[in-house]
Amino acid sequence: MTEKKLILSTALHDGSGALANAWRAPQVAPGNYADIEASIRYAQAAERGKFAFLFIPDFPAVRPDIEYAGVRNIIDPMISLTAIAQATSRIGFVATGSTTFQEPFNHARQFKALDVLSHGRTGWNAVTTSDPAVAANYGKPVADRSERYQRAHESIQIVQALWGSWEKDAWIKNQASGEYVDGSKLRPINMQGTYVASRGPLAIPPSEQGQPVIFSSGGPSPHLLSLAGRYASGFIAEVWTIEQAQAQRQMVRDAAEEAGRDPDEIKYFAGLMTTIAPTVREGLDRRIAIVGEALEAQVPHLANMLGVRIDRGRFDQPLTSEQLSRAHPSQDPRAGIALDVARQGWTVRDILAHGVIDFHPTAVGPATSHADHMQEWFEAGAADGFWLQPDIFEDGLDAIVDEVVPLLQQRGIYPRDYEGNTLRENLGVPGQYGLDPRVLARDEN
Q1: 147 near 173, Cβ under 8 Å?
Q2: Residue 94: strand pairing partners
Q3: Is there a contact between 309 and 289 (Cβ–Cβ < 8 Å)?
């Protein structure tokens, strides 16, 4: 039996990086958002590092801060990934698509087409959407949560049924006899739900992995756990501590078992923001140079997290002993991390540069600190893998591949090569074609 290995991925979005103002960094071309060659370059770097997949978040609306912050979104997930697929051979692609506004037939067609064109390397991060700006773009009101998730269940089931509606051996392609497809093996699905429906079939054959891999993402609400437990083989999480990750991962695994599946079939991915530099000081200086004045705007947030008043005039001084004695973490899960950093004697600017109010844990400094973080979480059962977010893609991704990956390989916890050619093989999840009969049987009982 193959020993379990860490799985890595990286988020790919606007072509700049994960940090605020990354598009302004001197090593970044400001037009990377519309330059597919930049995205291809990053995908090839990740593939060189044996990353299992690229994760593509998506927000199909213009954010209020676009004027200065940039788009922070890939120009179009499916079109961009079609181009990237032709320039890579092993790395997978997990793109986000909302069940709230897209019709299931569109999702089924687009994702399975990409899966065939990429030779079995595609995954679908199936999400629901409640943002009013996105709803307005589709000319629809924001539905309540129960409706959004009921529609999601119906949509995923229809999509999977459509994926299986072209049976595996239906494509004959016999030039001598003139028979192209066995019509008896290409059949409608005729599924009708409360919110969505499709007749089918889908005129796309299976890929090398059969059909795309389903992912879920977000916080483990009961609605999302029900969705992930039934259908997902990957869960993209937002967690800040080992304890929080351990608890969430177990909830996800329990949800899969409740749905009649093997909990090992769903892989849990924690986020990690990365800044690699020879020393912590140099890493902080790099982040300060990138983020710039935006750090000072975070002072009130830090003060609320620690329960103390912080004078902006003391931005470049540590918290006083009196402040530290009074400080106490708020309910924000990042607050304990922020207090630990503050107690190390860093200035307020440096505390914020550590990424203590970022959306994921942040590693700053030598490659060993990044490898240590991932190894500790992995061996503690807090994650099956990580979705990494380099501060700057242009050099930050290469630093992970060239400096962190070899350390993980030397420690015996990361593969030296891909397990196979498909996303399912490299995730270590079983094949599936069409609906999962185990889940259907459990739902019928």
Answers
A1: no
A2: 55, 123
A3: no
